Amino acid sequence: MSDKRDIKFDKEVPKDARKTAIRLFQQLKNQRVRLTIVAVCIVFYTVLNVCTPYYSAGVIDNLLSAIKNCVEAGTSFSISWNPLGRQMVTLFFLYVLTSVFYHFQAYLMASVAERLILTLRKQISSKLHKLPLYFYDGNKPGEILSRVTSDLDKVSETLQTGLLKLLTAIGTLVGAVAFMIYFSPLLTAVFLIFTVISLWVTKMVAKKNLECAADRQRALAYLTGIAEEYYTGRDVIRAYNHEKESMETMNSAVDELRNATKKTDFLTNCVNPLIRLLSRCSQAAIMLLACKWMLEGRMSLGIVQAFFQYINMAAEPLTETSYMLNSLQSALASAERTFHFLDAGEEKPDTVAPVLLKNAKGEIAFENVSFGYVPDKMLMKNISFTAKPGQKIAVVGSTGAGKTTLINLLMRFYEVDGGKITIDGVPTTDLTRKELRHNFGMVLQDTWLFGGTIAENIAYGKPDATMEEIKAAAKAAKVDYFIRTMPQGYHTVLDNEAANLSVGQRQLITIARVFLCNPPIIILDEATSSVDTRTEAEIGKAMKKLMNGRTSFVIAHRLSTIRDADNILFMENGNIIEQGNHKELLKKQGAYAALYYSQFA
Ligand SMILES: Nc1ncnc2c1ncn2[C@@H]1O[C@H](COP(=O)(O)OP(=O)(O)OP(=O)(O)O)[C@@H](O)[C@H]1O
C-alpha cells in the first residue's frame, strides 16, 4: 500500500547553476546581435526610469509656481513654450522613450527566448531517436515529456520576465534609493525601516508556507495514490470485505488534505494583505511628514510626488527579489535537467561503411551470442542457432525466459556483448539499423496504432503506398471487409488509442501493415487471452498466410500452434536449453516434452 512517508519533494535547485547558466548562454551565441540590443535597451530603460521622476519634480514645481503667479496676478493661465512648455513636452517624451525601450527589449527577448526553446526542442527531438532502448527502460515517459514541455516553458518564461526584472532590479533600486536620500534622508529611513519589517514578515510567512505547501503536496499525493490503488483493486477489496477499512483510510487521507490545504490557503491569502497593510502604514507616515514639511515650506509638491514614484520603484525589486531568484533558480534547474537529458549516452553509431543488403533471402544465424542488460550480469551465454530462408522458428519458454530479449537482439534494439548475429551471412553490425530493420516485419500483442486514418496506419511502413496496395494488404490480412463497414472506410480516423476497434481488429490491421511492407523476415508475438476463439482463429489464419515463404520467428504461448515449426527454441533463464523440431524434442524426453505432456496429457 502507498505510504506517504515515501513521497519526497525536492526543492528546485540546480546542482551547478554556473555551469548551466554558461551552457544556456552558449546556446544563445547565434543570437548575439539581438542580445546586445536587449542589453543596450535594458541600460537605457533603467537610466531613464530612474531619472524621469527627478526631472518630473522640477516640472511639477515650475507648473505649480506658474499657476500660483497667475492666481496672484489675477490673469488667465497660459503656458509659454520656454521653459515650462518645453519641460512638459520633454517629460512626456521621457516617459514615452522609457516605455519604448521597455517594450522593444520585451519583444526582442521574447523572440530570443522562443528561438532558444525551439533549438532545444529540436535537439531533444533528434536525441529521442538516438537514445538506446535501455534509456527508456529506466525513465518514465512522463519525465521525458516534461523535458520537452514544462521544463522548457519555465526557462522561456524566466528569460522573458524574471531575467529583465533581475537585471534592472539593482540599477533601479540603487538609483531610486540614491534620489530618495538626496530628497530626504529621514523619509528614506522611514521607508527602509518599514521595508525591512515587511521583508522579515514575508520571509517568516514564506518559510511556514513552504512547509505547509510540502505537507499539502504530500497529503495530495498520498490521497491520489490510495484512490488509484483502491480504484484498481476495487474487486479484491470487495471480495475480501475490506470496504470499511478502505473507506476509513480514504476518509483520514481526505481529512489530512483538508487540514493541510486550510493552512496553506490561509498563509497564502494572509501574506499579501499584511504586506499591503505595512506598505500603507509606511506611505501614511511618509505622507504625514511630507505634508508637514510642505506646509512649512521645507519640501515642494514636485519632490513629494517624485519621492512617491521612487517608493514604488524601490519597493518592487525589494519585495520581488526573492521571487525572482527562486524563479531563476528553478529555471536553471529545468535547463540543467534538459541538458542532462541531451547528454545521455546515445546508441552506438552505425558502421561508417555499411553493407547494402538488397533482396535479403532471410537466413538468420546466432553465433555464440552473449548478452546482459546489466554489464556484469550476463543473461544469455553463447547462444547459437540458424534459421534457413522461409523456416518457421518458434521461441518457447516461461515468463522471463528471454524470448523478447532474443528478438530485441535480432532487431538490434540492444547490442550483443559477445558473438554475432548474421543475416544472409552479413553481421547485423555491418548494416545500418535502418537497412537491417527494413528486412523485418513485426506483429506484437500490444498493437500500436496512431491517431490517423486506417489507410495511413496500414501504410506506416510504406508511406508512398497506393490505395490499391493498401487495400490488397488489408484483403490479405482479411480485414478489408471490416474496414469497408466503417463510416469512412479506409479514411476513418482512429483516435483515442483506436478505442473504436477491438483488440483483434487492431491486430489484423498491424498484420496488414506487414503484408504491405512485404519483408523477408517476420516476428510474431502470438495473441494470448485477450481475443475470443473466433478472432484468434482469424488472426492465426492471417499470420499463417503472412509466414508463407518468409523466415518467421514466433513467440509461442501455446504449444499446439508450433507443432509444424522447423525449429523450436526452448528457453530458460535467458539461454536455449533445447532446440529441434516437435518430433525431435519429444523424442529427447527433456523440458519441452515434459511441458508438452503437461499441457496435452
Ligand atoms: N530492460 C531490461 N532491463 C533489465 N532486465 C530486463 C529488461 N528486460 C527484460 N529484463 C530481464 O531479462 C529477463 C528476460 O526477459 P524477457 O522479457 O526477454 O522474457 P520473456 O521470455 O520475453 O518474458 P515474457 O513471456 O513474460 O514476455 C527477465 O529476467 C527480465 O526481468
Describe the protein in words.
The protein is an alpha/beta fold and 601 residues long. It has 18 helices and twelve strands. It has three domains: 16-342, ABC transporter type 1, transmembrane domain (ABC transporter transmembrane region fold), CATH 1.20.1560.10; 362-439 and 519-601, Rossmann fold; 441-518, P-loop containing nucleotide triphosphate hydrolases (Rossmann fold, 3-Layer(aba) Sandwich), CATH 3.40.50.300. The strands form three sheets. The chain has a six-stranded mixed sheet with strand order 6-9-10-3-11-12, with helices on both faces. A four-stranded antiparallel sheet has the order 2-1-4-5, with no helix packed on it. It has a two-stranded antiparallel ribbon with strand order 7-8. It is elongated, with a radius of gyration of 37 Å. The two termini are 41 Å apart. Adenosine-5'-triphosphate is lined by residues 134, 137, 373, 379, 397, 399-405, 574. GO terms for molecular function: ATP binding. Residues 364-598 form the ABC transporter domain.
Number of helices: 18
Contiguous uncertain segments of 5+ residues: 1-10
Q: How many strand units?
A: 12
- Here the CATH topology of the largest domain equals ABC transporter transmembrane region fold
Q: Roughly what is the average pLDDT, rounded to an integer?
A: 86
Subcellular location: Cell membrane
GO molecular function: ATP binding
Domain ABC transmembrane type-1: 37-330
Organism: Dorea acetigenes
